[in-house]
Every structure is written in C-alpha cells, then in structure tokens.
Specification:
Structural class: alpha/beta
Strand order of the largest sheet: 2-1-3-10-4
Order of helices and strands: EHEHEEEEEHEHEEHHHH
Mean pLDDT: 81
Number of helices: 8
Distance between the termini: 104 Å
Strand content: 15-25%
Length: 263
C-alpha cells in the first residue's frame, strides 16, 4: 500500500491487522508526483493519494476533502486573523513548489523568482521570510515548525484524498481494503471472500431464493385443507363410540337380543 505525505492510513491499517492477521499490509510512502507511477509499475497494489488520477486506467474512491491553509511566520499579519481570503494576500509573495498538490495553474498573490522543488523546501523559505505557502492542512501539520503557523484560507482549491488502484487489478485483497475504508463491518459480504459469509448473510441468501424453491419445502394450500378435513372426520368418528369401548347404539351387544324394529 502506497501513501502520499500528509495522509495518515493508521486507523485503516489497524482494522486490516485485526481482520487479516495472516496477511501483512506493507506501507510505502511515495511523493505525490510518484503515486501513479507506483501503481503503474506494480510497486503497490493500491495507493492513498490525492486526486486527480487517470480514470482511464485507475479506479478511485474519494475518502475526504482537506481544508486549505496558508502557512506564515508567527509574527506575520496573517497570523492575527482566524481566516483569510485570497484578497487578503494579494500583495504577498506566495510560493509555488513543483510538488504542489492543489489543482491550479498558480496560486494567488505575487509569484516568487523561482519555484521551490518540494513543499519542504518552500517551508524553509517561509521560515526565512521569503513568502507564504498555501497547502492542504495535513501538509502544514506534517511540516510543523515552532516559528510558523497557518490559517484557513477561502476561495482556493481543496485537495481530495482517495483510495486508488489499477482497474484491471481489482483483487480480493483490494476489495477487502475497499470495504475497510468504506466502513463496512466484518459481517458484510461485500468486499470479502465467499467462505467468510456470516450466518446472517446465509439467512439473507435463503430469503432471496426463488419462491418455487421455497414452496417445495412446504405442503400446498389444498393439501393442508385436506389434512385438516381428515383430522376432523377422525375426531368425529372417535366421539361416536360409547365410553368403555361399547358398541354403537342400535347394534347387537355381545351377540344377544334382537334388533329394534323401525317405527
């Protein structure tokens, strides 16, 4: 499993280890620019990355949208506000690293003379007072420094984190991980192998059987009525006998006496 900086796969990995203790999940951190290449070259079965990806090759499930923030020195005027807009930093130099994860041609504000190679390099320039930096909040936290802070900025693109994998390589294990990130329970049949169905799933399967198959297991309605009528006749015949097993009225008793004439 590959993942890009700022993404924290810890909770999903923990659930995986609980459900699949015999299948170790190996994590590999890759840069945002190298995430698709890791999947194309089979360096990972799936990746937690930032959109967009090539949808003609990869499947992707968006997981969450990150808050966008502007990183600045603690003594900068931006730090005095709880939230800023693009207009508030229009006259400020805003750095644009080559590994920028936000989907725009260039950030607002004034461009620097050169583009830093990485976000980490841009953070160093912000600390030196060269300019500001706009990034997803997770990257601001990842590159935290005591002399820097960040504030939410509006009217800017937002980064979406997604689980992605090659569409033609959707294996059972990938389906299992999809189930975990989507919050499915361990008893869910989706994303699990057929032999892992729970008793609840089995009941649901029986309920989904064709009606004809279910009716074979039960007598038809006409058969039920015939059985009930037969039981009633038996009960009526048994009640006509005298107590003690005597013969019916009008019949000979013990072979003696004459039968009564009809009046």
């Amino acid at each position: 499993m590959a993942y890009v900086p700022g993404v924290t796969p810890g909770k999903w990995v923990r659930i995986w280890n609980e459900r699949q203790p015999d299948v170790p999940l190996v994590l590999t951190q890759v840069s945002a620019a190298d995430a698709e290449a890791a999947l194309r070259e089979h360096g990972a079965d799936a990746a937690l990355l930032r959109l967009p990806v090539d949808r003609t090759v990869f499947s992707a499930i968006p997981l969450y949208t990150e808050t966008t923030v502007v990183v600045c020195p603690k003594d900068h005027m931006v730090a005095a506000a709880d939230e800023v807009t693009v207009g508030d930093i229009a006259d400020e130099i805003v750095l644009h690293p080559l590994d920028d994860t936000l989907d725009w041609e260039r950030p607002p504000g004034q461009p620097a003379f050169e583009r830093p190679v990485t976000t980490a390099d841009a953070i160093e320039l912000v600390a030196a007072g060269i300019g500001l930096l706009i990034v997803p909040q997770s990257l601001a936290r990842l590159h935290h420094r005591k002399d820097l802070t960040y504030r939410t900025i509006t009217d800017t693109p937002q980064s979406q984190v997604a689980l992605s994998w090659p569409e033609e390589a959707t294996t059972d294990l990938v389906e299992d991980f999809i189930g975990i990130v989507r919050g499915r329970t361990v008893n869910s049949s989706r994303g699990r192998r057929p032999d892992e169905k729970s008793s609840k799933d089995a009941k649901a399967d029986r309920a989904a059987e064709p009606k004809g198959r279910q009716q074979k297991q039960q007598p038809r309605q006409g058969q039920k009525q015939g059985q009930k009528a037969g039981q009633k006749r038996q009960a009526a015949g048994g009640g006509s006998r005298r107590a003690g097993g005597g013969a019916p009225k009008g019949s000979r008793s013990g072979g003696t006496g004459k039968p009564r004439r009809r009046g």
